[in-house]
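Technical note accompanying the year-one report. For the benefit of new consortium partners, we illustrate the data format agreed upon in the data management plan: each record pairs a sequence with a structure-token string. No post-processing was applied to the example shown here.
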Amino acid sequence: MAKTQDYSKMMNDMMGAFPMMDQKAMQDMFKTHAQMGEKMSKVVLEAAEKSTEISTKWTKDTIARVGQISAVKEEPTEYTKAATDFASRSAETAAEHMAAYAEVAKKVQMETVELMLAAGKDIQEDATAAMKKATTEATSAAKKASAPAK
């Protein structure tokens, strides 16, 4: 019977073939990435929740108005008036709900920009720290190599 490939061993072997100068920097990078993903997920889920609330309210309003328009009327002209009122109110609520969707989109956009700016700052700080450490290590190694043998 065929043996299942051990992917965790394969990944460990692959990562071992690419020696990293600083494992902590890699861990910090993954941690920063995971935190960014969590924050972005929160923004997206809040937007989805708010959009769902808007859609639900819009649907309930429309169903209520359909109930009014489908009710039996005494005079034929009342049907025309009911249809006109329905169309007019539908246009008004469409504008209101589209404005609400626009507010949700604007909030998502602002929060995303804030997260991206913060992430850029974090990445820049991490890169600066890594470069300082690498420079210090390279300088130390160069001094050792150029020191006269005793």
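Partners are asked to follow this layout when depositing records. The chain is about 85% helix and 0% strand.
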